[in-house]
Amino acid sequence: MKILVAGAGAVGGYFGGRLAEKGEDVTFLVREGRRNQLAGAGLSVQSVHGDFKLMPTTIVAGEYTAPYDVIILSVKAYHLEAAMESIEPYVGRETMILPLLNGMSHIDALVDRFGENNVIGGLCFVESTLTSQGYVNQTSPIHDLVFGERTGEKTARILKLEEAFSGTKANFILAENIVQEMWHKYLFITTLSGVTSLFRSPVGPIRENETGLSSINNTLEETAAIMRKLGAPIARDIEVKQLEKLNSMGYEMKSSLQRDMEKELAVEADHLYGFLLDKAKELNIETPMLQIIYANLKIYES
Asked: Is 160 considered catalytic here?
């Protein structure tokens, strides 16, 4: 399959690099500066699962405008509009767009732009960063990319994609219910990112503090209440399971949103939290914890 990876940063560089390492037909859609960097130094990945380096195939937006079989979209939400413009020349009638963004509102944006058939579901779990030298540094035992048809069907095209992804030195997983998986991750990221960015702390000290622990619980409960009212297919006991997961995480674990704040980078305040608060207002749900988290992020942005 012809695979286009939109972005060669921490996420796209890692999963796209693993596919290229395996020998799949991978092209990276990047900006001119990143293209020059990759042309000079190559794509270098330093990973707990094994380092590798390769000379990737790259294009910038507008070059070689033929459709790809699948486009992996690994940008931040605040770059989504620009990314959609960049990938449009490469989207054909049968192209699968596989987004790895957190949250859910990007699905509507992609469907509005490209149509229901072109957009499949996706998410990833990986701890990776792009260094100032342009290397991808991947540090987590977990390096999963999860995908599937949003209908839950095992279509011929999704099975073909599963075959292309198989045998890669990262975990590419075909989900039984990708939409549920995406909502579950949204709930988890909302909580972990919200409390760690609010308290400016790894998760360990927050768990040990009485107010910190109640903040974790309240964020889980408020977010799950909104999702259930929206009809999201989340599990009945998801709050309990995710609290267990948060309690089992490494003491020094930080969210990527918190790390972005420490680097004075942009954050996805509106995409993750503004969306939930808008829905909560429509549904008349009280969300004091989410409002505090959102205010913290908006004050940071200002």
From this structure: no
- Return the closest-CA partner of residue 194 out of 248, 235, 254, 139: 254
Residue with token string 């998986």: 181
Alpha carbon distances (Å) from 268 to 11, 79, 179, 212: 16, 10, 21, 22
Domains of the chain: 2-176 (3.40.50.720), 181-301 (1.10.1040.10)
CA 233 from centre of chain: 19
Query: How much helix, strand and coil, in percent to the nearest 5, is found in the chain?
Result: 50, 20, 30
pLDDT exceeds 90 at position 132: no
CA-nearest of 36, 238, 228 to 134 is 36
Query: In terms of residues, how long is the chain?
Result: 302
State the angle between helix axes of 210-229 and 288-301 in degrees (0 to 180), rounded to the nearest 10.
100
* Catalytic residue (choose from 160, 185, 229, 298): 185
pLDDT in tens, 5-52: 999 999 999 999 999 999 999 999 999 999 999 999 999 999 999 999
> Can you read off the two tokens belonging to residue 35?
């293209």
Helices (H), 138-274: 156-165, 178-199, 203-208, 210-229, 238-248, 256-262, 269
